[in-house]
């Protein structure tokens, strides 16, 4: 099933949640692939299943059925599921996350926040963290704490943090939802550049305007991908 | 950036709460420290005091020796004396290296405000008191001479070569004594005593042929039981009514008198540790709840269960070890006060009794702090490790 050179391969991927006695089908069998350097926009209204998809691809949650592999690693295939350990390793080595909330540690400076994912691999990587902050345009805010940064700046720190482990895939769940349009465009442009440099991106949004600027658009509605 | 840095920064995030938690542990550790050091210092003090005495067996007339001591200290007649003849029986007993007979009396005047205790000693006495040191002068140079303890000499304002007068009319006619020597301060009862040649005291106080205690030094300590029983035998045969007991027994009596107090204090220490430990547990648990989303994000970034567990555990350990170190410091700072308090409260405190710091006490205190951290940290760390990244990250928007 390991698809030649694809970063993400999902086939008939489904996820349902049990709420009381009811089953909520958040994803009803979706198929898609993401190649290296591809910028995929996952477009859909609220409740369509965007976050659910990202969680499955990032190994934060397990699919109910279907096949999924990420960066050449089997995440799920029918009844088979990857172990918690290998999902931890997948996130540690291959995947980066950004969310609409920034989730920065308030006690740490910008550089320190970027270094956090290196703590559990016993690396310091301060130089790399500084270089990444410069890359996202925050070279002048290295030692600022989150409460001393603007929303756009915090999202840049979060982005640098997501990139510190040199992932093959970036999962972005409405990262611009809390930003004004000009900041939104700046962040999006940054992601475009990163994608051009070879980073595969899965970008969830309900913003049609942004969708047009991706390489590929997956229109998600009520747990299914619409054609066209 | 390291685990340690993150853990420390997390602790410092809520400084007041952390300080209160650390203080709870510190109080418990300080109490434990004082208890351990007290035990060590007290026993050491008693032991050195007894070995200072140089005697292994004490012989007194029948009757409670503590009661007798009280009577002497508060004045009044010694309840019972023993005959000097008995001393020669003791001296003749096999296994005795040296022995000395002592006679005591006290003069109380001004309704107890002036209380002088006189001790009559013979030439053998210094042999049993190897640590005796003179500040001035030396041993008796004539029958009418005296050796003064440091405190008495100071309160009387006399030194070697001066003259003192003993009088307690009509019982004791005024008698002049030349001060032959003044002892160095020892912080023991010696400081408050006036020593006279045995026969002089007997004559002046009208106690000819009487003794109150005989101290015996053995040539071989391992034969103590044997010598004690042969002395008891001799006492029975002569119908002398003597109480013969080894001083090691006295040590046991005094230490066992304290053991009930110690159990009580230990119970308080345990309660303090439980309170401190619960404080640590709730603080860390609160911190984990407050940081649910943060921890969820860490997991999303690839932190495994063990990584999160380790982080929270480290925070707990830093808190309790910090408490342990603060507690030791607190104990060292309060040590003098505690000793002063104990001297007031306890029936007997050895002269060179002090609270110090031994490596073992320090080790136990820090070890207990670590164990406390391990115990109090396990549940919160496990809770933190079990946080699901999706619910934690989703949490904010719902
Ligand atoms: N843990 C859960 N338990 C039960 N139902 C859930 C759970 N998570 C998601 N759902 C449901 O699954 C569906 C898809 O949710 P999802 O969060 O993926 O939507 P979304 O496209 O990300 O929406 P939004 O734009 O509002 O973030 C929704 O109907 C939601 O109520
Ligand atoms: Mg969503």
Tags for this model:
heterodimer, A: 228 residues, alpha/beta, six-stranded mixed β-sheet, five-stranded antiparallel β-sheet, 7 helices, B: 398 residues, alpha+beta, ten-stranded mixed β-sheet, two-stranded antiparallel sheet, elongated, binds adenosine-5'-triphosphate, binds magnesium ion
Helix content of chain B: 55-70%
Percentage beta strand of chain B: 15-25%
Report the uncertain regions of chain B: 70-76
Shape of chain A: globular
Tell me about the biggest sheet of chain A? 6 strands, mixed
Distance between the termini of chain A: 26 Å
Number of strands of chain B: 12
Largest sheet of chain B: 10 strands, mixed
Sequence of secondary-structure elements of chain A: EEEHEEEHEHHHEHEHEE
The side-by-side strand order for the widest beta sheet of chain A comes to 7-8-9-3-10-11
Counting DSSP E segments of at least 2 residues, the number of strands of chain A comes to: 11
| Rg estimate of chain B, integer Å | 32 Å
Note down, in words, how this protein is organized.
The complex is a heterodimer of chains A (228) and B (398). Chain A has seven helices and eleven strands. Chain A has helices spanning 50-57, 84-93, 110-119, 126-135, 151-163, 181-196, 208-211, and strands at residues 8-19, 22-34, 39-43, 65-70, 73-77, 80-81, 95-99, 169-173, 200-205, 216-221, 224-226. Chain B is elongated, with a radius of gyration of 32 Å. The longest helix of chain B is centred in the last third of the chain and has 44 residues, at 247-290. Helix content of chain B is 57%, strand content 18%. The two termini of chain B are 32 Å apart. Chain B folds into two domains: 3-48 and 253-394, no CATH class; 62-241, no CATH class. In chain B, the strands form two sheets. In chain B, strands 1, 3, 4, 5, 6, 7, 8, 9, 11 and 12 form a ten-stranded mixed sheet that branches. A two-stranded antiparallel ribbon of chain B has the order 2-10. The chains are: A alpha/beta (228), B alpha+beta (398). Bound molecules: adenosine-5'-triphosphate and magnesium ion. Residues 50-51, 173 of chain A line the site of magnesium ion. The site of magnesium ion has 3 residues of chain A, from α1.
């Amino acid at each position: 099933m390991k698809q030649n050179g694809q970063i993400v391969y999902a086939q008939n991927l489904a996820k349902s949640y049990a709420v009381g006695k009811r089953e909520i089908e958040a994803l009803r069998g979706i198929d898609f692939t993401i190649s290296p350097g591809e910028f995929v926009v996952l477009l859909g209204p609220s409740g369509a299943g965007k976050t659910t998809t990202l969680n499955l691809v990032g190994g934060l949650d397990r699919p109910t059925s279907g096949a999924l592999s990420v960066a050449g690693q089997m995440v799920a295939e029918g009844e088979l599921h990857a172990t918690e350990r290998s999902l931890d390793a997948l996130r540690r080595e291959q995947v980066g996350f950004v969310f609409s909330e920034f989730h920065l540690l308030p006690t740490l400076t910008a550089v320190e926040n970027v270094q956090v994912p290196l703590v559990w691999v016993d690396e310091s990587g301060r130089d790399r963290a500084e270089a990444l902050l410069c890359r996202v345009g925050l070279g002048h805010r290295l030692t600022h704490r989150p409460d001393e940064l603007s929303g756009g700046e915090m999202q840049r720190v979060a982005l640098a943090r997501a990139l510190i482990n040199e992932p093959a895939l970036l999962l972005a769940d409405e990262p611009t939802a809390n930003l004004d349009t000009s900041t939104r465009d700046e962040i999006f442009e940054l992601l475009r550049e990163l994608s051009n440099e070879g980073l595969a991106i899965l970008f969830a949004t309900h913003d049609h305007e942004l969708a047009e600027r991706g390489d590929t658009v997956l229109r998600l509605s009520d747990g299914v991908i619409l054609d066209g | 950036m390291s685990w340690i840095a993150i853990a420390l920064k997390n602790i410092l995030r809520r400084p007041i709460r952390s300080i209160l938690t650390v203080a709870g542990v510190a109080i418990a550790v300080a109490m434990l420290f004082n208890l351990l050091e007290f035990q060590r210092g007290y026993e050491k003090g008693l032991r050195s005091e007894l070995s200072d005495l140089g005697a292994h067996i004490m012989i007194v007339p029948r009757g409670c020796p503590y009661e007798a001591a009280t009577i002497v200290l508060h004045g009044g007649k010694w309840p019972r004396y023993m005959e000097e003849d008995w001393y020669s029986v003791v001296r003749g007993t096999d296994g005795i290296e040296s022995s000395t007979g002592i006679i005591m009396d006290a003069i109380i005047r001004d309704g107890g405000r002036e209380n002088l205790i006189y001790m009559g000693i013979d030439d053998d006495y210094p042999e049993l008191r190897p640590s005796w040191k003179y500040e001035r002068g030396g041993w008796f140079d004539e029958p009418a001479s005296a050796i003064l303890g440091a405190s008495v000499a100071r309160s009387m304002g006399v030194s070697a070569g001066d003259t003192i007068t003993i009088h307690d009319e009509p019982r004791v006619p005024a008698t002049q004594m030349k001060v032959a020597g003044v002892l160095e301060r020892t912080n023991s009862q010696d400081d408050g005593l006036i020593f006279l040649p045995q026969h002089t005291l007997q004559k002046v106080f009208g106690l000819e042929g009487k003794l109150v205690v005989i101290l015996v030094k053995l040539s071989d300590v391992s034969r103590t039981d044997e010598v004690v029983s042969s002395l008891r035998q001799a006492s029975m045969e002569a119908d002398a009514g003597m109480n013969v007991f080894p001083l090691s027994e006295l040590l046991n009596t005094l230490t066992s008198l304290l053991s009930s107090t110690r159990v009580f204090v230990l119970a308080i220490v345990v309660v303090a540790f439980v309170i401190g430990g619960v404080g640590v547990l709730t603080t860390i648990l609160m911190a984990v709840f407050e940081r649910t989303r943060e921890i969820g994000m860490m997991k999303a970034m690839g932190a495994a269960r063990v990584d999160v567990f380790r982080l929270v555990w480290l925070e707990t350990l830093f808190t309790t070890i910090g408490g342990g170190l603060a507690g030791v410091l607190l104990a060292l700072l309060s040590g003098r006060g505690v000793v002063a308090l104990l001297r007031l409260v306890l029936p007997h405190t050895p002269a060179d009794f002090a609270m110090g710091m031994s490596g073992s006490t320090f080790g136990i205190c820090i070890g207990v702090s670590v164990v406390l951290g391990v115990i109090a940290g396990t549940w919160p760390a496990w809770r933190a490790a079990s946080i699901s990244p999706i619910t934690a990250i989703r949490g904010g928007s719902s």
